[in-house]
Amino acid sequence: xxxxxxxxxxxxxxxxxxxxxxxxxxxxxxxxxxxxxxxxxxxxxxxxxxxxxxxxxxxxxxxxxxxxxxxxxxxxxxxxxxxxxxxxxxxxxxxxxxxxxxxxxxxxxxxxxxxxxxxxxxxxxxxxxxxxxxxxxxxxxxxxxxxxxxxxxxxxxxxxxxxxxxxxxxxxxxxxxxxxxxxxxxxxxxxxxxxxxxxxxxxxxxxxxxxxxxxxxxxxxxxxxxxxxxxxxxxxxxxxxxxxxxxxxxxxxxxxxxxxxxxxxxxxxxxxxxxxxxxxxxxxxxxxxxxxxxxxxxxxxxxxxxxxxxxxxxxxxxxxxxxxxxxxxxxxxxxxxxxxxxxxxxxxxxxxxxxxxxxxxxxxxxxxxxxxxxxxxxxxxxxxxxxxxxxxxxxxxxxxxxxxxxxxxxxxxxxxxxxxxxxxxxxxxxxxx
Length: 433
Hints:
four-stranded mixed sheet
């Protein structure tokens, strides 16, 4: 495995979007094209890629996992390793860039809830176990993520969701993570949710699921979620959004030093104007690296979506660090410079964040819009950050747990009211007694 010299040093990588054919490249898999793409990624100094098999193509029937498709995934992983790139694999795709990819045995005439139907669960577990086992002997294999933001299938605003309870979501996550562990024991197996898990009232996938199940907490930070619209592209809130999500996750984590993977973050136009993409990249990554216990940063995405492909939301076409011809864009140059600086200067882990914003929510919250853009917790955090603090968060139920606070290095507590949200007074804090 391409392990950084300093084990405490964060990893830097990209979500691999093929320059030709997007993820439809699995239909016409060309290893030479993949190698050329990976050459352009490795040239930027990254140490890993996150890759995305398309579930319906790899498992077109519940009892058929195509050996040729699995072989092509292994070929991609081997090609990455030859270029010094480790590989993390997402299994159930699932959902990518506004398109859903579900196999025919789960939809229309075979419509079944993908989180609770026993036959579907057996098929999913077999699929995840098979992918993990195929890569288990590769030192460059990091581990499995269950799927890309698969929580979006479980509720609004999906047009046809498979509705479940939080308990059922937890059961599904535990079973699928166990299947990955069976296939490749001891690897970095985790799950990834889009920000409804943190911000949406009533969403069945919860902050506790994200922060307690799996080997690390995955954070997907997108400022088109209302942050940029509310605060503007040059605001503290936009620059600190990824750091906020990292620190918000720690309120629910049982392990005070649980690793957090900033698994997706990007500069979506026009919410981040093209001429500010490089500056946004630097500000966002530097803020994330100022958070303790960050496993790594994986940018979305490697290459632009080819405009010959129709019907993507406009912002999806320009998220790449590289253009379709593999030329490096300004954000790509900036991120490569950040990677080089981090490695040349010798990484020093950030100091603990000693000021904690108290999040007055239960362990399993139904209401959590207060944590999203415009919510009291979100706005209080950003006010503290704007005033020069380096805030983290703690649940109200743990605010009196001295051992927990000490383990995280927290010495001051601030409530939403004390942060001065909605009034002009300066924030105040009180020491931990």
